[in-house]
């Protein structure tokens, strides 16, 4: 049992080194341009050690992305139907902040567009009920535009917050997001007959 904990700790340490090394390299170049050799040189481990954990760079990226999505799924499941609450937005921003450097790297110009697309689809599915609760006058076309506006507005806020180095607290960002969503949706609740 004692030996198993030691191994687990070493595995976690190695994976953390590889994750941090990948994030550092992604600030300079795209995932496609990063080689296993370059990454292992960056973190000072052997190639064979890398291959004990991952098949290739893409496998590493995929597992890191899955870790982020699993945390989002847990958050979403924890809140159930109560996602219209500002507490959900606070938890969402806290979750993003927990994955700060990794999330920044993945959505950057050197990141993975499939991750960005998956993120958009996940957020789209989660804000739909929130937006529906706020909309008072519903037309299908109007709803479609409102959803897109809220989705990309929220993503824009998240991206800007990351770019600013998470200067504002999750609570402040949740309040700003909530205010902007409600104000803009309410302004959009006019008849366009």
UniProtKB/TrEMBL annotation:
Pfam families: TetR_C_8 (PF14278). InterPro entries: Homeodomain-like_sf (IPR009057), HTH-type_Tx_Regulator (IPR050624), HTH_TetR (IPR001647), TetR_C_Firmicutes (IPR039532). Coiled coil: none annotated. Residues 35-54 bind DNA. The keyword tRNA processing does not apply. GO terms for molecular function: DNA binding. Keywords: DNA-binding. Residues 12-72 form the HTH tetR-type domain. This is TetR family transcriptional regulator.
């Amino acid at each position: 049992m004692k030996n198993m904990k030691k191994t687990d700790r070493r595995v976690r340490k190695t994976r953390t080194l590889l994750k941090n090394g990948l994030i550092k390299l992604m600030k300079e170049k795209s995932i496609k341009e990063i080689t296993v050799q370059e990454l292992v040189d960056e973190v000072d481990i052997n190639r064979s050690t890398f291959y004990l954990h991952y098949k290739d760079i893409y496998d590493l990226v995929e597992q890191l992305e899955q870790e982020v999505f699993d945390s989002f799924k847990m958050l979403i499941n924890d809140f159930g139907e109560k996602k219209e609450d500002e507490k959900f937005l606070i938890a969402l921003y806290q979750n993003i902040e927990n994955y700060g450097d990794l999330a920044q790297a993945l959505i950057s110009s050197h990141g993975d567009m499939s991750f960005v697309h998956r993120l958009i689809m996940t957020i789209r599915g989660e804000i739909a009920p929130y937006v529906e609760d706020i909309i008072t006058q519903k037309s299908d076309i109007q709803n479609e535009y409102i959803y897109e506006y809220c989705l990309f507005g929220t993503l824009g806020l998240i991206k800007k917050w990351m770019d600013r180095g998470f200067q504002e607290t999750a609570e402040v960002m949740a309040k700003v997001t909530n205010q902007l969503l409600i104000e803009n949706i309410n302004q959009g609740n006019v008849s366009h007959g």
